[in-house]
Amino acid sequence: MNKKLIALLLATLPAAAMADVTLYGDIEADVENGKALNYNQQGQNPVNGATFSPALKTVSKIDDTGSYIGFKGNEDLGNGLKAIWQVEQGLNVDGTSGNGSGNFYGGTWATRDTFVGLSSNFGTVKLGHISTYLNSDMEKVDPWIYGAGVNGLGTLTYNDTRLKNAIRYDAPQFVPGLKISAMYGFDETRTLRADGSRSDQGQYAFGLGYENSGFYGDLGYAAERDAGANLNQTAYYWRAEAGYNANNLLVAAAYQQTKTYGSNATFAIQGVGTANVAQDLANVNARINGGDANGDVKQDEAALTVGYTIGAFTPMASFAWGGDVKTNGTKLNDTGYKQWVLGVNYALSKRTNSYISYGQKKYDSGIGNVLNFANGTDKENTVAVGLQHKF
């Protein structure tokens, strides 16, 4: 069916049929330059000549930083009950996809929050592909617009995600400003363990928040059952955020802890997000775990962001810290990181925003020497100039 025929069919629909449907979205991209592991560049080992990726090589690029389009609507069912729905799809306005894109969206449809549900005075229930409370209601500490670079706190918020095959419940605000959320993502595969029993790698998440007169506090928790090499451990991730966001001032602080197992440890600790990076950083994971494939890896992280709006300008600054990791309770020295981001947003209108930002992430020597192989550097950096339009 061609585009002209689709447009004709839509035009012939009764107005009432289209009345409850809202089209919305966000188109954004930047010009950036720097060295980042998620740029997925190749390097060459000077000792044996072998190629490897990722390598910290300077790259200039046009990066999609999170574009999407969505459709949503509702129907009044009477007695305070509403049917609600949403379909949201990530876009790649730079013409790339998957690992080649700054937002990592693949080729599937409905890559972002997509659900059907019911809403009433007793709360809201959704079924589908749905964000955790960490992803949907938090992240004031990370207000940056960014793609694959380090000009945003992507390591800190790496595990803020959406759960597939999920059900989410949001309680009504019994107290003004109070938010309570709970959700569960079903494991429909039920992988077999070595002894023949079935695992259940279901994921669950909770959220609690309160806001009053600009002051706010949020606590989010997410966990996965039956993690680790033996499929019998529980991996978890939680973050607390608090601050003030009103009267042109943003002050946001966060503290979090991540506990993971096996090959996922590198993801959680360093926030490196592509499949190629995962495979090539296997030796990093082995170093962290000390050879124990089922060993737990834990790290504490913290961040602080400050911003102030003066007319159309909003200068901001962030600092993030990752502590030394622990494996099976044993601390490994010099395995953390430090990151800072500086930037200025300029509002061209209520819906169009421009910005310039610079970020740098520096690894401690114990992890940096392995992460960067023979590159002779322990830093990632990104400078970006971008444009964002919401509709």
Overview of this structure, please?
The protein is mostly beta strands and 391 residues long. The protein has one domain (29-390): Porin, CATH 2.40.160. Helices cover 12% and strands 50% of the residues. It has 7 helices and 21 strands. The strands form 2 sheets. It has a 16-stranded antiparallel beta barrel. It is globular and about 75 Å long. Residues 265-289 have low confidence and may be disordered.
What is the structure about, briefly put?
The protein is mostly beta strands. The protein contains 7 helices and 21 strands.
Keywords:
two-stranded antiparallel ribbon; 16-stranded antiparallel beta barrel; 50% strand; Porin; mainly beta; 391 residues; 7 helices; globular; single chain
